[in-house]
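Recall the central idea of this unit: under ordinary conditions, the amino acid sequence of a chain determines the structure it adopts. In this exercise we apply that idea directly, starting from the sequence alone.
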Amino acid sequence: MKPAPAISAIAGALTLLTVGVRLDLDPIALARLAVLGAALGMIVRDDLREHRIPNRVVLSATIACATLSLIGGLRASSLIGGGALLVLLFAGALARPAWIGMGDVKLALLMLCGLHGATPRALLFAVELAAMIAVLLALRHRRLAFRVALPMAPFMAAGCVLALLI
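Accordingly, the structure predicted from this sequence is:
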């Protein structure tokens, strides 16, 4: 049985909202995390099922998170590291589309708007988790593992949670 988009969105929103409450964040930051979490829930669901990140979800959530960031008083210093990583991901997507898709780059932009200064840690955790799974697949399936395309959204969502908690 496949979860409905609403269930995935609610689960994602509640996950990041719970972490934000635990961190005693302000209401604007909590709203931003709820939007990010809801979007991540739907994006992970779609990426696992169809290996794609839907523009309608990621772009609307990015606009909502950016708006909330501006309302909450965005500091440019919180975007520098994540912005640099975003540029590297974009260059990587142009150079090797088989390694990382443009949907993943757009998802990283959403993370930058939703997480601010925690984005570099989140992306680093995502890459580490994906690499760990890739190594395990390579150990188990040898050469066949290199033909498997891993959906990155689940790793990026887990990276968001880890970056907030650590």
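Helices lie at 5-22, 27-50, 55-71, 80-95, 102-115, 119-141, 153-165.
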